[in-house]
Structure formats: structure tokens, C-alpha cells
Amino acid sequence: MPRAYQREAFINGMRHFEDGKRETLIISATGTGKTFMASQFVAAIPGNALWLNDRIHLVGQVRDELAGMLNRDVWIEQGDTRAPSHGRVVVGCVPSMAQPKRLAQMDPKRFSLIVVDEAHHCLASTYQRILGHFPEAKVLLVTATPDPLTGIESVCLDYQWLRAIGDGYLVPVRLAQARRIDVSRIKTSGEFSDDQVAEVMGDDVIRGMCDDIVKLAMGQRGVLYMPRVDVAHIAAGVLNTLVPGCARAIDGSQEDHVKAALMKGHKAGEFPYLVNVGMVVEGHDDSGIMWIGHGRPSKSRVSVTQTTGRGGRPLCAVDQYDTAEARRAAIASSPKPHVLVFDFVGNLGKHKLQTLVDVMAPKDMEEAVKKRARDLLDKDSGGDVEKAIATAQRLTQQERQEEVARVARVEAARFEWKIVDPFTAFGMPGQTDVATALTRATQAERAMLFRAGVDVTPSLTKTDAQRLIRAVKARERAGLASFGQIKILSRHGIQAQRMYAKTARRLMDAIARHNGWTPPKETIDAIISNRG
């Protein structure tokens, strides 16, 4: 049964296609069922579907998953393997399908839907060549890391890490800041190369990293990401020295059957520590991964998100619970209450690396708030990333509210001493003359204006007093704000000259509820527009 956010993706995406959009994007954290979500579109949209994946070793895995979800045959287009023309669903390997001669043999109208798996790669020329060959096909883009994508027509789901943790579909993250690697000496303006990182990882650094892993994750299955093949094999050797038989190294240079055996053996628990170079990445689903070791520092949000995401899946079956609270409780009491992430980077120098705060925080979070969350993590030995982000947001919001209140108090104080001119307040021409002994307003006139809240000066003439009295009575008959209300509200920056007395009273009540401070702008606007 689809989860709520999975239904949201399907409903929104189908509506976008029906509205004439060619493409729509699913952003969903690693481990939240992107393949399942995309399979719902394949099942619902008539015609043939093409599923694109650029990882050669994952094409068969995706085919098997789709076949099980759709309960139908799924064909492969890769290398010498060709999908039959009647194949309803085809998983295509991007490097194979992007070959011009191969594309030229395919009918441009063959597919009505193209699913681009790991869509953050789709700006590459190989993807663009394939998408351009099938111009009438709808395109469903699926990724956990949308950073490189620009100009997408629509987004049908944005379901990222923190939301998934809060809903109880991914495990919380705990950070172990086991700082060992000094990247301050690396000179580069872009991403680090593998050789650059490997050169600053001497034997003492590698030994320290392995000590930390054995100390904090003894016997627990996890993956250590390293920058270069030789360094990975050295690290595996050190781990095996510390705990005999505990580690294996895997890299792209090994034979396919060797890599497959290592992946299978690690997932089966034959050994706990897998030291890898570029292999345990997209498409590797293993809920038993209890820790992740970042031994390859990166400036790429995509890279850090993808690697850390390998450990996000819960070990318990959370879909049997109806509420987020129940799911989180089940995770907390399971053998995997969180995933432990080792951050081995120490001295950054001038480099700005992507951290767990950067990849887990909402994309629109201000850098100052992220920095505050990072500072909180530095002081918190518990390493609760989710808590650090939430605390940074709360403290920042609290400070901003206090600043707004402070400004309001200053503004209120600034208006306290100011005498509001009654003629200006009533929208009338100003005082016409200065009173003499014969022309000065009478005591009765002055008392009437005083009761109406008007500031009466000794220079007020009888003529001007009568003008003000007529204005006061006319406003009362029309139900408009009194001079006293106008005067008080003006001290809070609210112009009430043309305001009804009823609205003015509600605004004054709001000021009283805020202990005499100016209420928030949204409160004032709501009252004036008769919404509050």
C-alpha cells in the first residue's frame, strides 16, 4: 500500500502530465521508495515505458525489482542484449542506449514514458541524446539530490531527509566527529581529486580512522568510503590487524564476480566492515548498514547525500504502524535506532566542505542558521544532527522575534512624546489663527475637546475649536475612529484617520494583548482586512 507521500507524488505527477507538462520531478530521500513511486507511473500510463539507469551493474537489479512490482516481464537494453520491439517495459543502460547507431534503429514514438533514475545525472550529453530521440515521451525524473537540475517544468514531490526522519521512515543520524584528515594543505578551487585526498592520509591517519571504527562500531556492519584503491586496501588490512577477518576492500578494478561476492557477503553479515572506492553508491539497498565512514572529503552535496543515505533505511518494518510516532518508537527500540556517521575531516583551512547539516537541512535554510547548527554539533558529544538543526532554527526564530519586539518598543517610545496634531489627524486644514484674549476657545469648548482626547493648546481659537468639535461629532455619527484612538494607533505606526471605531478598538485590544507593544504586522493586517 503506498505511503501518503508516495500517493502525493503520483497524484501530482499525473496531474502535471495531464496539464501538458512533458516532465516532472520526484525528489525523495534515499531509502524512501523512489523505485516503487516511479513504478506506479509505469503501470498507469498507457504505452511502452523506458527506464534509464547509467550504472551498468545495476541494470539487472532494477529489472528484477520492477518485474516484481509490476508483476510482468521487464526487458533489458544493454550491450549485446536487445529488448524486443513488443517489450512493454524496458530498462536501458545509458552508455549503451546513447550510442547514435543504436538510437537510430529505435522508433522515436516507441515510448510514451521515460523514467530517469538518479536524475541528477541527466544533464549529461548521453541522457540528453536519449531524451531528444523520443520527443513525445513524458519524462519522470527521480532523485534524492536535485542540486544540479535547473529549469525543470514541475516538481510533484519534495520529500527530503528531515521530513522522512520525522515521519518515521528513515532512521535518525548521529555524528561522530573523529577528526583525522587535514585537507588544509590541499590547493584546489574545485572538488578534491582522489590523489589529493590520498596524499594527506598517511599511515597514522588511516590507523586512527580504523581505531575509531573498531572502538565505536565494534562488529556492526558499515561502509568506509576511501579516495583511492591502494588506500582502501591498506585500511582493510589495518582493520583486519585490529580484528582478524573483519574487513574487505572493494573497488571497480576487481572482477565482476568478485565484487558481487563481496557485496553479497557483506550484506549477509559474513564480515562487518566494507572498505569501498566508488562501489557502494546509488542503488545499493541494505538496511543493515549501521554506520558510514566519510574517508573521502567532498565539496559536493550530491556526493555526501548519496553516501550517507546508504545508512538511512530502518532495520524494522515501519509500514505496519499507522502513525509517525509509532514508527519512530519502533525505530528507537530496534537494533538500529540510528545510523552513526564518522566525519574524519579535521583542519579545513579555507575549504568549505559539505557536512551533514548542509545535506540534511532544508535547502532554503540560511547559511547563518546552518553555521549555528554546525557549532551546536561541535559542542554536543551526542552528535544528534536533527536536534542541532531544530535547535538552531528555534534559537534564531526566538532571537528574531525578540528583535522585532525590541524595535516595536523603540518605535512606541519614539511616538510617546509626539503630540498628534488634531487637524492633520482629521484630514482638515490646519489652525487658521493664533488666539488672543477675545478669540480664545471657551472653557466649555476646551472641556468638550479634552473629553474627546484632543490635545488643546492655549493658542486654539473659538473658530478652530468649533471646527474640531463638528469633526468629532461627525466622526461619531459615521462610526469612525475617535481622535484618542487615532492618537494611540499612530504611536504604533498605524494610520487610523479613515478607520472605523470598531476596527480601531480591535487593534487597541491586540496592542493590550501584546503588553503595550506593537503586534506583528500579520496580526495588524488581518484585523484591518477583517480577517483577524
Summarize the structure.
The chain is an alpha/beta fold and 532 residues long. The chain has 22 helices and 13 strands. It has three domains: 4-159, Rossmann fold, CATH 3.40.50; 169-360, P-loop containing nucleotide triphosphate hydrolases (Rossmann fold); 416-528, no CATH class.
What is the radius of gyration computed over CA atoms, rounded to a whole number of angstroms? 34 Å
Per DSSP E runs of 2 or more residues, the count of β-strands stands at 13
Helical run tally = 22
Strand percentage: 5-15%
The CA-CA distance between the termini, in Å, is 41 Å
Q: Determine the CATH topology of the largest domain.
A: Rossmann fold
Q: Judging from the principal axes of the Cα atoms, what is the shape?
A: elongated
CATH-defined architecture of the largest domain? 3-Layer(aba) Sandwich
- What is the CATH homology-level superfamily of the largest domain? P-loop containing nucleotide triphosphate hydrolases
Can you give the mean pLDDT? 87
Strand sequence of the main sheet, in spatial order?
3-4-2-5-6-1-7
Kindly give the count of domains: 3
Question: Which regions have little confidence, pLDDT < 50, spanning 5+ residues?
Answer: 413-417
CATH class of the largest domain: Alpha Beta
